[in-house]
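User: Can you help me understand a structure? I only have the sequence.
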Amino acid sequence: MRKLQLALKRTFDIIASALMILILIAIPVLIVVPIVIKLTSKGPAVFVQDRVGKDGKIFKIYKFRTMDLPPEDSYVENGVLYQANGELLKSEDRINKVGAFLRKTSLDELMQLFNILNGTMSFVGPRPTLPYQVEQYSEEQRRRMEMRPGVTGWAQVNGRNELTWTEKIKLDIQYIDHFSLWLDIKILFRTVGTVLGGKGVAFNKYDDLTVRKN
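Assistant: Let's start by predicting it. Here is the structure, written out as tokens:
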């Protein structure tokens, strides 16, 4: 039964993501948003980054860029970005006005429809994480990679970024253990309310998995 539901889940991902891409091009959100990004800040309209997917495989995630490029005189040390004067340059401080709107409305995630279409992501699943975080996972936490990562998930509708990574992972494993198509539908509907409410957009809690260790 689980295999059948997973097969149906993938079929839904392919059909729904393809239809949404066509609809968004017709509207045309996928054309207007990148133009606005290019007109209001320097840099590419689409942000591409390595993330860890199902079974620990690395893939390229696509998002609309929401942050200004770091200053030319900034530098990276131990995976952390610093200003020329040595002060930490937080990612939150680089989010521009257009980016803040895109994040609040989750429009920055629309490019992940292409990730869903190519099979590296699903509509619902654990949010894809960075390789350095996975390196710090315990054996139990590594179970998070048993399913394709999702644009939304159980952790996103139960606190989103108001949770620490450790709390998110626990919820993701709960989702994997209790997966069903009905749960996916429930999460998708709850996601609409979460996005409209604008809750949990900003990162408020941090833990050991947030910091790169070298």
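Now, to help you interpret it: The radius of gyration is 18 Å. The first strand starts at residue 46 and ends at 52. Let me know which part you'd like to focus on.
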